[in-house]
Write a structure and sequence with these properties.
The complex is a heterodimer of chains A (321) and B (269). By secondary structure, chain A is mainly α. Helices cover 69% and strands 6% of the residues of chain A. Chain A has 14 helices and five strands. Chain A has helices at 5-30, 72-77, 80-112, 119-127, 134-145, 150-161, 163-171, 184-209, 212-220, 225-254, 257-262, 270-277, 284-311, 314-320, and strands spanning 32-35, 39-43, 49-53, 58-59, 66-69. In chain A, β3 and β4 form a beta hairpin. The longest helix of chain A has 33 residues, at 80-112. The model of chain A is unreliable at 315-321 (pLDDT under 50). Chain B is mostly helical and 269 residues long. Chain B has a domain at 54-226: MetI-like fold (Orthogonal Bundle). Chain B has helices spanning 2-27, 44-49, 53-86, 89-104, 107-120, 127-152, 155-163, 168-197, 200-205, 213-223, 227-254, 261-266. In chain B, α3 runs parallel beside α6 (127-152) and α4 (89-104) packs across α6 (127-152). Chain B starts with a helix and ends with a helix. Classes of the chains: A mainly alpha (321), B mainly alpha (269). The interface between A and B is large, with 85 and 91 residues.
């Protein structure tokens, strides 16, 4: 193909305007704050008002706020209120990622096996729910879990039918209406529900690609199924696991919708504070500082995962066999 | 026994994934506004849906933004991928990591950064900013799906075309484009899906009363979602379901043990 510079120009221009400049804007807003300009109002004899600045100059327009470079928003981020939310966001995201990994890995593994005649069909069924708007699906969980929701209704009718069950629950101090929603666990459930497929897909793809003759060789050489899993399948699936972890952790650490719906506003996460700064509180500078933090943390996280990926060459493991 | 357990486990995960969807579909036929009580079967939400101007206009916005954003970002992303492909190694690596940034960044950061961009350029938030933002986050996915196809391309083909007297443009449309078409197409589908499903970026970059379905649903969720929305998503879900099952079954019939079926399944990303 002949090199054609003319093609590159519009594309690079686009990338500059819609990728680089917006990120620069976040950095700029993040390291600046708005300060009021001090001034005194002077009413002149003819009734008009002028404004005298500190340096003595006089203007007819009311001085606006000025933007000054300041790191005060970074200090604000580490105030106990915000620090607690930051830590909670990470905790919730890490728990979500671990649960997704524990639930999702076996699914990927089973689907690559011979149990299902049409693994592709099952895989498609796994991702089909994502075609329904995620807000709606999360909202639907709320109607299942709320105090007068379906799950509580089922439990209630089960209690009526089985008095022994009812007595047992009452003796253990379980309320008549169990509160499932509006706490951290509900938020985690919502996230696991929304992101589970993100974990299954990449792991499935990687395990599927493993050369089956490796597993046959392992079996021929006398490895037990458990051993051939730990020595062949597991090391080879690490890249998929790492991709899955990224695909779950990144949205989980920054979501603000799931925490608002499932947490009912009682479990605010860092995404909620960012959203607030661009809405009600309207402090764009602080919002940008928080976004900057999120960006740095996510990129650092992925950098670290990439490093694990490189250090963990599965080929070495297989040679031992 | 072990096989049954494994199948049961996958079944359980399926049940977990489909439980809210089944609920949603059931309640689109529920003759009661409450989401906890069953008031008998009805089709009234489906009738009222098409008379609801707010929902219909949100649907229109979602579809028009989705199609426009997919077309524009496919064109831009394909051109971009070719441009990147022709660069020397180092600048290409540098550009690729810039283009990948929106995919690595969380949606909140992308949304906020674009909002600040429009604020700086003093563009009033609305339909245009929504469209521009959707193009912005879709292009990297198109580039990502076109690049591998370009790598597989025989470099001699385009040269041969030009040796035989084709203009570069003819060479592109006659030789290169047909070869990379699968990548372009899957990029288009990916862009369309991402745009239709997006909430976070739209939330930060729309204004002046322009809202798509996601934003309408978000606003509704605070007061209670109308069963009309359930009816709408049931229709959408059934359409996609039939389409995907159809594609999948016809694929399987052709070649039941085909490995590349995985490619088709991955399109929704």
């Amino acid at each position: 193909m002949k090199r054609n510079k003319a093609l590159a120009v519009p594309f690079m221009l686009w990338a500059a305007i819609f990728i680089v400049v917006p990120l620069v804007m976040i950095v700029w807003y993040g390291v600046t704050v708005e300060e009021p300009i001090p001034y005194t109002e002077i009413v002149q004899e003819d009734g008009t008002t002028v404004f005298q600045l500190e340096d003595g100059s006089v203007t007819a327009v009311r001085p606006q706020k000025k933007t000054v470079v300041s790191l005060s928003n970074f200090r604000r981020m580490f105030e106990p209120t915000y620090l607690r939310l930051l830590l909670r966001s990470f905790k919730v995201a890490i728990i979500t990622t671990l649960i997704c990994l524990l639930l999702g890995y076996p699914v990927a593994l089973i689907l690559t096996g011979t149990d299902f005649k049409r693994p592709a069909l099952w895989l498609m069924l796994l991702i089909l729910p994502m075609w329904m708007n995620f807000l709606l699906r999360t909202y639907s969980w709320m109607s299942i879990l709320e105090n007068n929701g379906i799950l509580n209704n089922w439990i209630a009718s089960l209690r009526e039918m089985l008095p022994a069950f009812d007595e047992w629950l009452t003796s253990r101090g379980v309320r008549r209406r169990i509160i499932f929603l509006y706490n951290e666990n509900a938020v985690i459930l919502g996230m696991v529900y929304n992101y589970l497929s993100f974990m299954i897909m990449p792991i499935y793809t990687v395990i599927e690609k493993i050369d089956k003759s490796l597993l046959e060789a392992a079996a021929d050489l006398g490895a037990s199924p458990v051993k051939s899993f730990t020595r062949v399948t597991l090391p080879y699936s690490i890249p998929g696991v790492l991709e899955g972890i990224t695909m779950v952790f990144v949205p989980a650490v920054t979501t603000f919708v799931i925490s608002q719906l499932m947490g009912g506003g009682k479990v605010p996460l860092i995404g909620d504070i960012i959203q607030n700064q661009f809405g009600k509180s309207s402090d764009w500078h602080f919002g940008a500082t928080l976004s900057l933090l999120v960006m740095v943390v996510v990129l650092a996280f992925m950098g670290a995962l990439n490093k694990i990926d490189k250090d963990d060459e599965p080929v070495k493991e297989v040679r031992i066999l | 026994m072990a096989k049954k357990l494994r199948k049961a486990y996958v079944g359980l995960i399926m049940a977990f994934l489909y439980a809210p969807i089944v609920m949603l579909i059931l309640y689109s036929f529920n003759n009661s506004k409450s989401r906890a009580k069953w008031g008998g079967f009805t089709l009234k939400w489906y009738r009222e849906l098409f008379a609801d101007e707010a929902i219909m206009s949100a649907l229109g916005t979602t579809l028009s933004i989705g199609i426009l954003a997919a077309v524009i970002s496919t064109a831009l992303g394909t051109v971009g991928a070719i441009a990147l492909f022709q660069m020397k190694r180092r600048p290409r690596q540098a550009m690729l990591s810039v283009v990948n940034l929106p995919m690595l960044n969380s949606e909140v950061v992308t949304g906020v950064s674009l909002m600040l961009l429009f604020a700086m350029a003093r563009i009033q938030l609305g339909y245009v900013t929504l469209l521009l933002s959707h193009v912005a986050f879709c292009v990297p996915y198109v580039v990502l799906s076109v690049m591998p196809k370009l790598r597989q391309l025989d470099p001699n083909l385009a040269e041969a075309a030009q040796d035989l007297g084709a203009t570069p443009l003819q060479g592109f449309f006659r030789v290169i484009l047909p070869d990379i078409m699968p990548g372009v197409f899957s990029g288009f589908i990916m862009a369309l899906t991402m745009s239709i499903d997006d909430f976070v970026v739209s939330f930060f970059t729309t204004g002046s009363g322009v809202s798509n379905l996601s934003i309408t649903i978000y606003t509704m969720a605070k007061r209670g979602i109308s069963p009309k929305i359930n009816a709408l998503s049931t229709i959408i879900f059934v359409c996609v379901f039939v389409l995907l099952i159809g594609i999948n079954l016809s694929d399987l019939r052709k070649d039941p043990r085909s490995q590349d079926k995985v490619d088709k399944v991955r399109i929704p990303y």
